[in-house]
């Protein structure tokens, strides 16, 4: 949140009425048979799409494992699928995230990395911000030697409106610690996410 005051609560009924208003503004009749349940369905969908606001991504990384037989090489989780929504047009962003980190004595369950991605993706987002949020959360909580995050996304705000360009994807990255400072570490990470060894 950018505001210092809390966001006022919105009731389910208010949310559904807002959907009816948008339907009328688009030229539809919310009382039409096919649209009668649409406000309820949209409110339920929003509850799922934006569940990240109810989650603390840092909590997913709280439980770590130190009994890893001294393992200190890079850990990479590739192709984490995500669904998000652009905060400018509320249009979907669909893509994949690649996460890597160089542990410093402790590791985290790999499903937790995917949960961190989901917690940030399931909010209104700008891809650049989401990329940085994922990387900084992993760095802050796990305190590894370094973190690398690469996000690839197809933005429906560009493909279904405006310039109408299909087949375009955006790539963003955030490299911290050794991933930023050591070209060899960064190169190894990029090779891993490209599927090369």
From TrEMBL:
Record's Gene Ontology CC terms? cytoplasm
Q: Which domain of life is it from?
A: Bacteria
Any one of the GO BP annotations = tetrahydrofolate biosynthetic process
Q: Which InterPro entries match?
A: GTP-CH-I_C/QueF, GTP-CH-I_N, GTP_CycHdrlase_I, GTP_CycHdrlase_I_CS, GTP_CycHdrlase_I_dom
Pathway per its UniProt entry is: Cofactor biosynthesis; 7,8-dihydroneopterin triphosphate biosynthesis; 7,8-dihydroneopterin triphosphate from GTP: step 1/1
Record has Nucleotide-binding as a keyword: yes
Task: Report whether GTP-binding shows up as a keyword of the record.
Answer: yes
The protein's Enzyme Commission number: 3.5.4.16
Q: Where is the GTP cyclohydrolase I domain?
A: 16-193
Which residues hold Zn(2+)?
A: 86, 89, 157
Please provide, alphabetically and separated by semicolons, the GO molecular function terms listed in this UniProt record: GTP binding; GTP cyclohydrolase I activity; zinc ion binding
Q: Which UniProt keywords apply?
A: GTP-binding, Hydrolase, Metal-binding, Nucleotide-binding, One-carbon metabolism, Zinc
Q: How does it assemble?
A: Toroid-shaped homodecamer, composed of two pentamers of five dimers.
Q: Which family does it belong to?
A: Belongs to the GTP cyclohydrolase I family.
Q: What is this protein called?
A: GTP cyclohydrolase 1
The species is Pseudoxanthomonas taiwanensis J19
